[in-house]
Amino acid sequence: MPQAPVDAPVAKTKPPALPQDYFQLLKPRVMSLVIFTALTGLVAAPGEIHWFLAAVAVFCVAVGAGAAGALNMAIEGETDALMRRTRGRPVAAGRVAKGDAFAFGVILAAFAVMLMGMAVNWLAAGLLAFTVVYYAWFYTVLLKRSTPQNIVIGGAAGALPPVIGWAAADGSLALNAWLMFAIIFVWTPPHSWALALYTSDDYAKAGIPMMPVAKGPKSTRLQIFLYSLVLAPLAVVPVFTGLGGWLYGVIAVCGGLAFVGLAWRVYRSRAGEKPGEREEGLYDVKAEAKTARDLFAFSILYLFALFAALLVEHGIPGAA
């Protein structure tokens, strides 16, 4: 009797990506901060803009930020897979193909820039395009693996949203817009290096020369403290340029002193001396790294409070 044919092996098909996977490509937590600072720049600008166009401008900034995040994940998929903090991202985990993530980012970026230009103005659109390219290509491709100053130079991308918001409302690039840029730019290194102190094993494994990996934790702790000494007085300057009022001034002074104090604690600590100081959660760390974790957490609150004060003072009549 003829033998029954052997069944051919069934190829396993990967399940299609879910909508939430594409949403995660947008880096929603980063996007929320971008939206907030862009909105602050838009409200603080002296120009008049219709509420609908203001909403369109903020929407375009949000989509552009999401596009930059998707492009970053498409480019960094293999690297993200090596790091505990990022291995669950859609491309790193294999839920979204690298090419699909890249195409998604390009389409979103083109849409956001064109809509901003046609609906609002081309100055804001040009700044938005520059920000996406700067983050996705200049920072991710060129800087991140080539220099421990990657986060310093690359921080310009995260500092531009309030300038874009200002340009959308006023069609200009005034000193106060660049002052908001400067605050975020100087805030970025101590914020990012505080996190890097207790995630340095991840960066080392991925071959990324973040400051604790390239220069050591002691040098990083010193630089965090020195940056805090620049940031605290810089954040008070808007009071003297008319950008910030009394509420902003109180928050800037008190928050700046607290920031310097926490940075001093980091400098005096041994944060970063032991690899693998982080446990499972982002804020669940061992004793040696708690000072760095506290500064990282406070830095987010500090920046939020500064820009919230500006938003209140310029958005609510009589609040300044």
Shape: flat
Uncertain runs with pLDDT below 50, 5 residues or more? none
Strand content: under 5%
Helix-and-strand structural type = mainly alpha
The biggest beta sheet is recorded as:
none
Helical proportion, percent range: over 70%
Description:
The protein has 320 residues and is an all-alpha fold. 70% of the residues lie in helices and 0% in strands. It contains 15 helices and no strands. The longest helix is centred in the last third of the chain and has 26 residues, at 290-315.
Short descriptors:
320 residues; mainly alpha; flat; 70% helix
Explain the layout of strands and helices:
Blueprint: H1 19-25, H2 28-44, H3 51-75, H4 77-80, H5 98-119, H6 122-143, H7 150-159, H8 161-170, H9 175-197, H10 200-206, H11 211-214, H12 217-236, H13 238-241, H14 246-268, H15 290-315
How would you briefly describe this protein structure?
It contains 15 helices and no strands. It has helices spanning 19-25, 28-44, 51-75, 77-80, 98-119, 122-143, 150-159, 161-170, 175-197, 200-206, 211-214, 217-236, 238-241, 246-268, 290-315.
